[in-house]
Amino acid sequence: MGAPTPGFANNDEKTWALVAHFGGAAGAFLGAGGGGWVAPLIALLAKGNESPTVRAHAVSALNFQLLCTIVSIIGWATVCLVIGFIPVIAATIAGIVFGIIGGMKANEGQLYKYPFTINLVK
Fold it and tell me: Where is average pLDDT lowest: 12-16, 31-35, 50-54?
């Protein structure tokens, strides 16, 4: 394997940062907008105390995916009104697209600032 990307101390940090972002996108896809928080939380709990870089990536992804989950839950709660499908679809697409963008930035060694994020986890 080659040298780690600038911004990461080693390949383990890079792997966990990618798990946080790409795992969030996969969780959003598989959980219909509501499961994207699982992988960033796992990354945060597994390596967040050991690496400030992994913690920053995991917290960033977790805060965004939690917001998508909240929007998705509200959408599923109002699905009987037919309009509930709109926030569910929006949360799912946003979780996937921005999770992939975050993963691509992390692969380049950059911290991605997700749009529309509220800081629930610090």
Answer: 31-35
